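Suppose you are handed only two things: the residues of a chain and a line of SMILES describing pyridoxal-5'-phosphate. What would the bound structure be? This form records exactly that question and the answer produced for it, so the two can be stored side by side and reused later without any lookup.

QUESTION INPUTS
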Amino acid sequence: MTMPKNTTLSTWARNISPSPTLAVDAKAKELKAAGEDVCGFGAGEPDFDTPDFIKEACGKALADGKTKYAPAPGIPDLRAAIAQKYVSDNGIAGVRPEQVVVSPGGKYSCYLAIMAVVSPGDEVIIPAPYWVSYPEMVKLAGGMPKMIFAGQESSFKISPEQLREAITPQTRLVIINSPSNPTGTVYTREELAALTQVAIEAGIYIMSDEIYEYLLYDGVKHVSPASFSQEAAESVITVAGFSKTFSMTGWRLGTLMAPAPIAKAVTSIQSQTSSNATTFAQYGALAAMQQWERSMAAVRSMLEVFDRRRMFLLEGLNAIDGIECARAQGAFYLFPKMDAFGLSAMDFAAKLLEEEKVAVVPGEGFGAPGYMRLSYATSDEVIEKGLERLARFCAKL
Ligand SMILES: *Cc1c(COP(=O)(O)O)cnc(C)c1O
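ANSWER OUTPUT
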């Protein structure tokens, strides 16, 4: 008698899609390794090093033997400093350290937030274009992603009406990401207030992914939905982290700030899955928080460079017939429309890489066919050469 086979992959493993952006990335790396001169616009991280004083604080912690487990929600001083930042910098009244959880990366903070409030069968509203990981994380929680689309015509911003219409009795959560990856779009205070009001009235949570909160241009200001009112603060889970602001992607340090019962649930999930974010890395982050002026000075010098590249890339893209690009005011991405060429973004990107050795990320993975993402977290030389090649490629189509 043979036993039934119980050796198939889990529902979760079978349902999760690998990152669709990886195909182009893998090909680009392969070409580079083979000695090809590839112009890469695929980067999802700043091309700067972590500021020295942050690295030194981490080095000191290591030397001092801060090499043991830390409390699951993070070292107390860091949680307190983050809570204080949310009060003084984001204008969220009365944030307490017990509302803050430090995790191994902003990505993991998003996952923890979703795991804390989404049950199997729940719906989660995700505005498209979206960051590739949101729908997959919702599926890992057993939830159902429900996309609503806002293209370039609406500045990549969903309207309060769109949100209201998408909400059903099964809806638990809506994800807002401003400034946005992949579009760089930043919602205004009024727009965010209106969306927050719709969520509050419907009794659903907002996960506000503010990982790019300090990467802003043209004088626009960041607004946290949790700052609008006490009611808003009770409905919003704010996730952020150190990766993008301080060029610390490899450090794996994210943050989550939520009403205390949610932060407590998140801490339990973290305690059973990752335990804590790397202990000595947290001391580097603590230096970034405690020496805020110095940190912001480092951010400002990075922004100056990003801003110049942004305008250079934007003008170059809009000078190409058939490409139409909006002036994004945040993060380090531009998200032009390229559907005039009669090619899918996937085919366009593959052909562009093949023929001109330029790597861009096709829009399909972000729920936005007909668009492509270009990161300007790369050198002026790469942008200049990449634009020339892209123009030549488009002229041939
Ligand atoms: C980069 C990114 C994150 C988190 O990055 P970590 O490196 O995990 O801190 C979260 N959300 C968005 C939209 C991002 O682009």
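WHAT STANDS OUT: DSSP finds 14 helices and twelve strands in the chain. The chain has a mean pLDDT of 96.
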